Structure formats: C-alpha cells, structure tokens
C-alpha cells in the first residue's frame, strides 16, 4: 500500500525481541530533531525514526557511485601534498581530454564527478580573478586554459553532475609575503563578489558579510565557481590542514549562506550534509547509520569533527544525544596508490574485483562510494585505470541490471522500482514473501527502506530461501537504510522471505530486488616452501596504499575449484583437484581455476627449482640490517637480501647441499622499490666452495618497468653443488644489489 508522510507519522512502533513498545504520536519528519531533557528513551527513538534526509541529501544518496579528480602541481612533482611554494610553471600540462575522463566514468556507472579545483597548495585550476597562483600562470594553452570549464562542458555532454573541492587550507596564501591567510586583517563588512576591472559577472547577486581578508578571498572564489561553471551539485571541504597561521578562522556561516543561495541543489561535504566515512582505504562499517547524535545543533556549527568510531548510531549512542541529525557517509578512496598520479610503473592500480567489492560494501551498506581517478601528465586517465572502470561498470550492469524478482508475486509497492511507494510491514509478523514464476539462481539481494519519508528503522534482518520444502536462512545483516546489498553463496529457489528481526518502529520497505553476480575464476599463483611443498592460491592484489584488510574473494562469494598438472600438459576439469600443498621435486607445474558456472580462468605455470631446505650460505659481498643474504633463498618473495651501496659488483655464494645437473636459474626482484635490480651478471661454480670458475654470463632487460621473476637457461647443463651469482651491472647505474629469491632448476 502506498501511504503518505502524514499517515506514516501515525505508525505504531514495533515491539520485537523484547524491545519496549512506544505509543504512537503525530510528529513530523525533520532533518534534525532536538532532544529535550524530558524526553524518555521511547521519545528519543520516536524522533530518530522521523529524521530524514533533505531533498538534496536524498538525491546525493541516489547518485550512489561518484568520482573524485585530483590533478595539479603534485601531478608533476609526484608529491601528495605540495608546499605552496611551487612555481606554477611546474604544472606542465600539454594536453587535456576531459571527454575521455567522462566517458570512462560514465562507463563505470558513476553519476557525479568532484574535481579538486584548489588543493592545499593553493594552486587553482580555473581562471580566477583573485589570484595568479594557478593555471593562468602556466604554459597550458598560453595561460588561457581552464580545466574546470572543460570538465563542466564534458559533464553536460555525458550527463554527469559536477562538484568542486575547494580546500580551505591554502599554503600559497600562508607562505607568500602578501598572502591573505592568517594576515591578522580586520573583520569588516565586505561585498561579495568584489568587482574586478574587465571581468564582470553575469550573475548580479550580491552578498554582504563581515569577514577578514582570507574569508573574503574564499567567498569570492566560491562565487566564481558556483556562478560560472554550470550547476554545482556538491561542494567538498577537506578538514586537513598541513599548516596554519595567525589563528585564521573560517566564517562557515557566510560560506553556507552563499552556497545555499547560488547552488540550491548542492550538498556540502565535511559539514552538515555529508560526512567522511573515517578512512581513505575503502573500509566500511558493517552497520552504517545515517541518523546520528550531536551535542550541538548542526545548523549552527562552524566545525564538524571527523567521526571515526565503529558505532555511530546505535540505540545506546542515540540516547546520549542532544540532537539527532541525518548526515550520510561518503566512502572515499583512490583507484591508485595515492590521490595524485605519479607513474604507470610503480604506482599500483586497484583490481576490478577490489573496486567492485568496495562498491557493493559501500553503496550496499548505506553510504555513497567516492572513487578517485587521478589524470596523468598527458591530461587523460591512464589505460589501466580506464580498463578497471569499464570492467567495473560492466560488472555492475551484469549483476544489477536485471531484477530476478520481476514478475514475482509479493508486495507490489516493493517491486515497482519506485522509491516513493512502499510497503508497511506488520508489527506482529514483520516479513515479506516473494514467489517467482520459476526457480531463479541468486547470490545478491537488495533491500531499501523508505528513508526519505519514514527514516531509518530496521536494526536486524534476515533473508530466507525455500529449499527442500522448508525455509533456510541464506543471509542476515543489521540495518538497511537507503540500501543494503546482501551477499551470499548462490541458491536456487522460487520463494524468498525477508524477516525483520529488530526494528525501531514499524518497518517500511520501498524496494527489493534479487540478482546473480557471476563468479570469475581468479588468477593463480604458486608458493613453494623451503622443503619443496607447493601451495596454489588466488593471486592477491599488491595494492599497498592504506590497506582495508578485506578478503575480496570471500566477499564476492567466488566459488571455484583448482585443477593442476605436473607433466607439462594443460590442466582441465578432469585434471587432479588441488586440496593441499603438493610435494614437487622439480619440473613444470600448471594450474587453472574453474568456477561453478564452468568458466575457466587463465592458466598459471611455473618451472619449479630444487628444494631449498638443505641450502647453506657460504659467502656474500655485504648485507644491510634486516635484509640479510639468507633472505635470498628463504622461499619468501616478500623478503629480500640487500647489499651495501658500494658498487655494482656484488655476490652471493650458496651450498646447494647436493650435486645437481642444473639447466637454468631464476632471479626474483624485490618490489618495494626500484633500486638494486640485477641487469647483468655471471654464474660461477666450485667443487669445494673455495675455488671458483665462471660458468655462464646472463642479462635481464626492462626490470624497472617489469620487476617480475626472470629465468636464464644455461647454454649447456652445469654440474654443481657450490654456486655463486655475481652482479656486474645494476639497472640505472645503481651501486647496490637486491634479491628476493634465487632458484636453480635441475
């Protein structure tokens, strides 16, 4: 049944699992509720479920997946934070293709892009009237370039909303002799915008604020951004301050007034509209409430502290509140290691699996997913970033493009794709049952509450499937809010049930849908212990920036089986199944993952060297603390030997424990940094470990760009027990050697 807000306000409150029943009262929905000293716990909960998002917040929630753009002097200095003293000409942009950005973001399913028009260094990306520290002082388009103008046009072309990140911190204004930040100027009445000869505004709106020099500067720039670049849908304020000066204060009341007037559809990040999720890693809370407590009225706050606790909106937290306010979370992280582009060699890119997992955890966990994609020094997104964006978009469409409950019997209001209609559940038996025309295979289920009209209510819920003549629980979670995506191993059934286990008031559900996310067989990797046992496992992402610690494959419910061969043949579904580490004396091992949908992954193969259990270190040229020579053969490619920085000729001598007929050796470089890659060298052998002779010289190319395991095959077999590997040339003219692993193949 489709009900109105007035009828919703008369709903009773559920008494579920022992929670106290409260009497219904007619109270309106609001964005913020003040808690009175006379309010009982029941009164506070009643107010909590009548706290709803503003129209702008609700539209921002529906964007779901949005983009961040960081570009500026840091793109060329390879720094994350500039110092404000950079010469603008260091921003040496020759080309710019914002259409390419927007095409890739649109393909990913993003609906809005927020660009850092001024980061903490104070450098601006638009043709501001109020500073010369920006793109107007570079060689880009002879100083006439305007990145925001280009992006605004591209957003209109591709149907994307636009947001701007304007850093309150400004190191250029701090460090400059005539800088305005913290200059102790007097607060006086000022007219915004300040007129500049030859640069009139088409928008004739005027504001009068009592502010100092820096607040006037900031307001003038806000006026430019919000009146000359099309509708702006988000204004993003970062709370980071690398440096302050003069006790500078921000007049946020003036900022807010100007934004509300000039960008009436915009939400403000970092203030009362949208909050930071509390990390930059892509980590998400298992329970993310958007109705949260405040000690002061958010409408009058100047500063909004970062909220990083795991529990922000439980009943216990609400009962301590002075105000209850709707403030949604934005989960922000980067597709690359860092916010700004550095290079395509060492700066790793998140895998498609990783981005898709964060998407499901954030969007499906009552928050918005904000993913940063930094353009490179050619003014475009790099190919690997574009590839991941397209793949993620395809996966979102493939999974969520079709509702497998379409045509099912059940609550019509929850199956009509209309967020404004909803179903009010029974207090005594709060559940919904859906019966499909024929059995469907699913591993995702989406539930949405009618938060815009009825607030956040559900505290715990479960999903059941009718299997073998009875209900079987397949998933459970805590709150729902705007959207909850339940993920679980695939089930096939024609009947599904949502059960609300705990609720703050009568549950009101607006939409449900069922989906199937096809599993993708992972790429495999071999890990060999010192005693020769070979383990086969999915290749884990090497993305090392602010790790979120999530088990991506487990989260995605990827169901697969690994098959392997030891005779050089291609593995198939008929090959032996890998269940535990295998004893391999040597030779070639191949393996492949095959999932439940019979999809076959890429074949992994490796030539296995002799076991290292009996190896002994005889000698080495040198070693540094924590990177001893024995780490070159400890069967752990993450550890490595590093020599002193005293010359390209470095060596390590090893007793293999037995005489072997060697056909090749392998060198695995370390990947922590690019130093010490062994470009050229010589293999020496000995009968007694003391007297050595050259056996063969070798050369490895392009190691800095591609630091992967390399194998040199000997021109003829080498009989040896004692063996030395000596470097004669290090990449880039280096003077130290690093070795993650050495392997010798019989």
Automatic annotation (TrEMBL):
Residue ranges of the F5/8 type C domain? Answer: 603-746
- Taking the record's annotation, the residue ranges forming a coiled coil are none
Question: What EC number is given for this enzyme?
Answer: 3.2.1.51
Gene3D superfamilies on file: Galactose-binding domain-like, Glycosidases
Q: Which key words are in the record?
A: Glycosidase, Hydrolase, Signal
- Name the family: Belongs to the glycosyl hydrolase 29 family.
The name on file for this protein is alpha-L-fucosidase
Source organism of this protein record: Sphingobacterium kitahiroshimense
């Amino acid at each position: 049944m489709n009900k109105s807000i007035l009828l919703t306000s008369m709903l009773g409150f559920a008494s579920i699992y022992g929670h106290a029943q409260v009497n219904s009262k007619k109270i309106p929905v609001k964005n913020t509720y003040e808690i009175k000293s006379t309010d009982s716990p029941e009164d506070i909960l009643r107010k909590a479920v009548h706290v709803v998002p503003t129209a702008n917040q609700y539209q921002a929630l529906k964007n779901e997946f949005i983009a961040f753009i960081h570009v500026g002097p840091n793109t060329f200095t390879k720094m994350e934070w500039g110092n404000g003293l950079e010469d603008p000409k260091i921003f040496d942009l020759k080309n710019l293709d914002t259409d390419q950005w927007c095409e890739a973001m649109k393909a990913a399913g993003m609906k809005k892009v927020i660009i850092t028009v001024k980061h903490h260094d104070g450098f601006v990306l638009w043709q501001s009237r109020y500073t010369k520290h920006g793109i107007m002082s570079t060689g880009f388009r002879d100083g006439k370039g305007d990145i925001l103008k280009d992006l605004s046009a591209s957003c209109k072309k591709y149907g994307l909303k636009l947001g701007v990140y304007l850093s309150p911190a400004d190191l250029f204004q701090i460090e400059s002799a005539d800088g305005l930040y913290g200059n102790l100027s007097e607060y006086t009445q000022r007219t915004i915008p300040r007129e500049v000869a030859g640069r009139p505004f088409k928008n004739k709106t005027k504001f009068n604020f009592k502010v100092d020099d820096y607040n006037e500067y900031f307001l003038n720039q806000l006026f430019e951004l919000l009146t000359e670049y099309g509708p702006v849908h988000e204004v993003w304020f970062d709370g980071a301050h690398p440096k302050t000066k003069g006790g500078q204060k921000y007049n946020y009341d003036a900022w807010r007034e100007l934004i509300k007037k000039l960008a009436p559809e915009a939400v403000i990040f970092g203030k009362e509209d949208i909050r930071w999720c509390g990390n930059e890693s892509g980590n998400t809370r298992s329970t993310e409430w958007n109705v949260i407590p405040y000690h002061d009225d958010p409408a009058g706050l100047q500063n909004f502290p970062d909220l990083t606790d795991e529990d922000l909106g439980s009943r216990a937290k609400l009962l301590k509140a002075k105000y209850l306010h709707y403030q949604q979370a934005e989960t922000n992280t980067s597709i690359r290691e860092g916010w700004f582009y550095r290079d395509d060699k060492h700066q790793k890119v998140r895998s498609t699996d990783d981005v898709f997992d964060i998407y499901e955890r954030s969007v499906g966990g009552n928050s918005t997913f904000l993913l940063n994609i930094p353009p490179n020094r050619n003014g475009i997104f790099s190919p690997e970033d574009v590839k991941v964006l397209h793949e993620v978009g395809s996966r979102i469409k493939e999974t969520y493009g079709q509702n497998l409950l379409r045509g099912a019997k059940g609550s019509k209001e929850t199956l009509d794709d209309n967020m404004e209609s909803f179903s009010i559940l029974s207090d005594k038996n709060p559940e919904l049952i859906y019966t499909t025309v024929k059995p469907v295979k699913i591993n995702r289920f989406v539930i949405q509450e009618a938060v815009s009209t009825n607030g956040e209510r559900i505290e715990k819920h479960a999903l059941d499937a009718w299997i073998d003549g009875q209900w079987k629980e397949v998933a459970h979670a805590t709150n729902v809010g705007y959207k909850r995506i339940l993920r679980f191993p695939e089930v096939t059934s024609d009947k599904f049930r949502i059960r609300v286990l705990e609720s703050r008031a009568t549950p009101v559900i607006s939409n449900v849908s069922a989906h199937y996310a096809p599993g993708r067989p992972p790429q495999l990797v071999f890990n060999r212990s010192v005693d020769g046992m070979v383990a086969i496992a999915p290749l884990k992402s090497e993305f090392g920036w602010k790790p979120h610690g999530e088990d991506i494959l487990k989260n995605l419910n990827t169901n697969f089986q690994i098959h392997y061969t030891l005779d050089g043949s291609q593995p198939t579904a008929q090959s032996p199944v890998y269940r535990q580490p295998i004893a391999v004396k040597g030779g070639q091992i191949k393996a492949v993952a095959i999932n439940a949908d019979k999809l076959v992954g890429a074949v992994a193969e490796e030539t296995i060297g002799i076991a290292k259990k009996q190896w002994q270190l005889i000698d080495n040229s040198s070693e540094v603390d924590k990177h001893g020579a024995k780490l070159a053969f400890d069967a752990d490619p993450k550890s490595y030997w590093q020599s002193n920085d005293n010359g390209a000729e470095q060596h390590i001598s090893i007793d293999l424990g037995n005489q072997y007929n060697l056909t090749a050796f392998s060198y695995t470089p370390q990947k922590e940094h690019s130093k010490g890659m062994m470009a050229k060298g010589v293999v020496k052998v000995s009968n007694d470990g003391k007297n050595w002779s050259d056996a063969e010289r070798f050369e490895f190319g392009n190691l800095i760009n591609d630091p992967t395991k390399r194998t040199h095959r000997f021109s003829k077999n080498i009989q040896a027990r004692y063996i030395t590997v000596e470097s004669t040339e290090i990449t880039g003219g280096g003077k130290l050697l690093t070795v993650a692993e050495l392997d010798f193949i019989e």
